[in-house]
Each structure stands twice: as structure tokens, then as C-alpha cells.
């Protein structure tokens, strides 16, 4: 399940420390070390798969749980009504730099669309 050389697998197991904001048996959420908004949280599955491009129907429940976790954290942090952005950078042109699927939850400021 976890990959030896993957930073986010190590964050999921606790081998690399992070500021966790939520965890359950499916996913872990923690603060991004390079925040792009007042709140910038990453939601990762405990199970390693490289990207959304690598997802299959077997990941359907996991992806659903990750999205619902993002929405719940946004409500808990108090910016759900104002609004927020969820992002899944996928592969090179998508700007993905860590190849363990993750959702960015960004909140606390307005966002423009389309993003750069
Ligand atoms: P990507 O560019 O792949 O969509 O996003 C990767 C994100 O992971 C970046 O926003 C980056 O700041 C964050 N990141 C990279 N390494 C670490 C780390 O060791 N700890 C934490 N908390 N975030 C990280
Ligand atoms: Zn991983």
C-alpha cells in the first residue's frame, strides 16, 4: 500500500511529521508547508495511488471520502459559506509535484478563475 520513497505515505504513517487537522481510516488531512491561502490543507488517502489519472473504480469510495472531508473541514474552519477552492493537480501539465493523490483545500480569501 505505502511506497517507501513517497513523502505523503510517510506523512500518513507519521514517519514524517505534519500538522494534522483530521484523520480517519481512509484519509489524513494536514497543513501544507507552503500555504497559498490563509488556510491551505492537503487531504490524502492512506492508500497510495499516484494521481487522479491512476484512479480506478476501486478508489471511488476513497475519493468520495476525501471530497467530503474537504467540505467538512471547510465548515469547521468557518469559511464554507463564504466559499473556498478544492484543487487536484494531475500530472505534469496539471502542476502535480508530489505523486501521491491529494486534494488541496484553500480558503480564507477569494479566488479567481481560471487559475494560472
Ligand atoms: P502538488 O503540487 O503536487 O499539487 O502539491 C504538493 C503540495 O505538497 C505542495 O503544495 C507542497 O507545498 C506540499 N508539500 C510538499 N512537501 C510537503 C511536506 O513535506 N509536508 C507538507 N505538509 N506539505 C508538503
Ligand atoms: Zn504515497
Short description:
The protein is 25% helix and 22% strand. With 116 residues, the chain is an alpha+beta fold.
CATH uppermost class: Alpha Beta
Shape: globular
CATH topology: HIT family, subunit A
Tell me the span between the first and last alpha carbons. Answer: 33 Å
Query: Could you state the CATH homologous superfamily?
Result: HIT-like
The rounded Rg comes to 14 Å
Q: Could you give a short account of the major beta sheet?
A: 5 strands, antiparallel
Write down how many β-strands occur, each being a DSSP E stretch of 2 or more residues. 5
- Quickly give the CATH architecture: 2-Layer Sandwich
Strand arrangement in the largest pleated sheet: 1-2-3-5-4
Q: Classify the helix fraction into a percent range.
A: 25-40%
User: Structural class, judged by helices and strands?
Assistant: alpha+beta
Unreliable parts? none
How would you characterize the overall build of this protein?
By secondary structure, the protein is α+β, with helices and mostly antiparallel strands. It has one domain: HIT family, subunit A (2-Layer Sandwich), CATH 3.30.428. The protein has three helices and five strands, in the order αβββαβαβ. Strands 1-2-3-5-4 form a five-stranded antiparallel sheet, covered by helices on one side. The model has no long low-confidence stretch (mean pLDDT about 95).
Amino acid at each position: 500500500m505505502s511506497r517507501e520513497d513517497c513523502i505523503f505515505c510517510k506523512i500518513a504513517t507519521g514517519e514524517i511529521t505534519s500538522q494534522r487537522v483530521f484523520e480517519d481510516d481512509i484519509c489524513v488531512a494536514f497543513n501544507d508547508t507552503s500555504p497559498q491561502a490563509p488556510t491551505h490543507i492537503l487531504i490524502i488517502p492512506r492508500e497510495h495511488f499516484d494521481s487522479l489519472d491512476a484512479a480506478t473504480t476501486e478508489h471511488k469510495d476513497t475519493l468520495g471520502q476525501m471530497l467530503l472531508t474537504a467540505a467538512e473541514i471547510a465548515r469547521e474552519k468557518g469559511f464554507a459559506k463564504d466559499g473556498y477552492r478544492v484543487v487536484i493537480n494531475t500530472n505534469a501539465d496539471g502542476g502535480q509535484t508530489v505523486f501521491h493523490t491529494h486534494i488541496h483545500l484553500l480558503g480564507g480569501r477569494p479566488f479567481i478563475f481560471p487559475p494560472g
